[in-house]
Design brief:
Elements: H1 6-11, E1 19-22, E2 26-30, E3 38-44, H2 59-76, E4 84-86, E5 102-106
Antiparallel strand pairs: 1-2, 2-3, 3-5, 4-5
């Protein structure tokens, strides 16, 4: 855990969140500034700064995160209509929190790009 990381503080319960899913390795919660009607952030509980800084062996959590995203989509009823998963990697890509996170967007028809 990184004591200065917003997402680590959410994991520890220091900052409240609207949880959608939680297990021993993963937390998913509703984004407080949603870009679409459904906007869920899915994060590993282990502090990983970004895809670019992953250590060997950490790719397993990525696979599990995608499985969890699919389970969330099924349970929340947007799997059939579709959803978008976005991972920003680094400042130039728009990563605002230095903790690996996956944006799950749904609940509206999206165009080719989301800005």
């Amino acid at each position: 855990m990184d004591e200065n990381c917003t997402f680590c503080k959410i994991i520890k319960g220091e900052i409240p969140s609207s949880k959608v899913y939680e297990d021993e390795e993963i937390l998913a919660f509703n984004d407080i500034n949603p870009a679409t009607p459904i906007h869920i952030l899915v994060i590993p509980k282990k502090h990983i700064q970004s895809l670019a800084t992953m250590d060997d062996g950490e790719e397993k959590i990525i696979s599990k995160i995608y499985k969890v995203i699919n389970e969330i989509a099924e349970k929340q009823g947007f799997k059939e209509k579709g959803y978008r998963v976005i991972v920003n990697c680094g400042k130039d890509a728009g990563q605002e929190v230095d903790h690996l996170h996956f944006h799950v967007l749904a609940g509206t028809k999206m165009g080719d790009k989301i800005v």
